[in-house]
Amino acid sequence: MIITENIHSAKTHFSKLINKALSGDEVIIARAGKPLVKLVPVGALEGTSRIPGSAKGKFIINPNFDSPMSEEELSDWGL
Fold this sequence. Notes:
Shape: elongated
Strand content: 15-25%
Low-confidence stretches: none
Strand order of the largest sheet: 1-2-3
Order of helices and strands: EHHEEH
Structural class: alpha+beta
């Protein structure tokens, strides 16, 4: 079940929302109806750690990526 609460209501019912999140409900906290954050149990984050090198070979960096910019490029950026 997805529960959406505005900030004011979330402050008032925070303990209830924590219990809902712990029981598996998706709790979204919004401002003026616009979703801002999701309340999730800490255990839900386990197993989602980054693995160094997992993107190796998935993209290519241009060989001149770190070369100095030309005067024209610098002026385009307003530098």
